[in-house]
Predict the structure.
Amino acid sequence: MIWHHLVQALLIAKGITHLPHVSINLMLTLAVANDPFFQKVTLQFFKKANRRHPKFPLVRTFEYGFCVSHLKNGFENYYSTIEPSARRNQKKAERLGYVFEKIDYNAHLTGITDIRRSSTVRQGKAVPAQHFQKQAAPIQNPPSQTRFHDYPYFGILKDGKIVAFAACLVAGEICQIEEIFGHTDHQADGIVPMLIIQMARHISAEYPQVAYFCYGNHYGASDTMKRFKKKLGFVPHKVSWKLND
């Protein structure tokens, strides 16, 4: 076990020397004109990004291996970076009648509960038992007053029923997928790739200052999750975080 961890650490150390580098501005000062909620979540994200990584304490959580796709050149440029299998997934879901929407989270609590309870395993890990005893609780997030900071929810629906959903943090130049779930019974229809691709399209159109569409860490993720992120155009980067210019 120790040898395995040592090998993993050496491979990571070798890999991070070749990571592309980006500097991401969270534009905190522009949140002053918004509800205080958006200053709070932006600062929380900044602190999380700069905390020591729980598995690799020599580096910060979102410093090395943060998964980034580029939106600064528009959605079509992003779309060209994803793998053909992701495009096929999206087209399959659309052909089967699934639709993408920006959603009111509180209007879909029953469906979201069903999605969360639809699998006993997520990302290769067993879902805690208490997860299946909870109903999705309503949120109290205020509406955003600007395009620079937001916390939108998105969904994939079929016949009016939600089958996948995601929450995103928009903070200056970044849109980070904070959580994303698909109903197990519909996964094979390509609903989650469709959700991610359509979120990228929406973010590019509605939040033009967002240059980076992001999805957590590469290092520490399961091999399955690493492959999935790569398929959708999320590439590990070295990131420098700025609260303001």
